Amino acid sequence: MIKRTVEISRPAHLSVSRAQLVIKAKESDAELSVPIEDLGVLVLDDSGITHSTAALLACMKNNVAVVLCDERHLPAGLLQPFEGHTLFQKHLRDQLDASQPQKKQLWQRIIQAKLKAQATILQKHTGNDAHIGKLAAQVRSGDPDNLEAYAARRYFSSLFGENFTRNPDLGGINSAMNYGYALLRAAVARSIVGSGMHPALGIWHKNQYNAFTLADDLVEPLRPSADSLIASRMAEHPLNDEPMLNRHWRTTLLQLLQQEYRIGDRTFPLLVALQHYTSSIRQYLSREVEELETPVLL
User: What's the mean pLDDT when you consider all of the chain?
Assistant: First the structure.
């Protein structure tokens, strides 16, 4: 089933009735119902939104990623269920038992996929991949040469100009990237839980205060899709240096969750492609497969 993304950016109250998420506007009598089983991601982008506990519990039981945005309209938090799979304990053990060489090899594959995606995006937008495609083949187990960072410097300057600096604390393009990356991270976290893994047990990212380090690992090959969407829309809708994204750009970036991806010779919308991707990660960690099913943006 293709899951829906719903954004709420006006004061409203959320409740649940007969397996429907009921969204009642506070500024009028308007009311909308959405089957909870149809939801994949729910974005709450207004401080005036309230909810019943039953509504959030229903979202958790149906593995809906609930994204909470702050006053700058940037995702500030993510609600995910503790368990989303009947074999959760087995898969958790596989994650805990994964060897360091196994993790390094997995990280190598993830970075290779990321660099290949960056090369494709650059070729599409500039007609030149800045030799990043060749770098992908040179990534070794664990990326000890830090080719990811080396490629990033080439990639961002080629895509957004020599004067661009990737800095999450800056506005403009950086704010748009923050928003897009956070949406993709939420979608990946949702799929991780649905695949029976724990999002806090990362492969490479490690932070005792971060409950989604595995999502930060697995989202890496998907980040260039956000960059591509931003680059393709900037000419028509320029981004200023303000830290707060306008309504147009927030709506535009939600399209990331509806884009089509290729896995092998098959095509899927993102949320479905992520199910294949995270399942292949789980199978890799349990030594059932040696290759990953990494989504490639069409």
Answer: 91
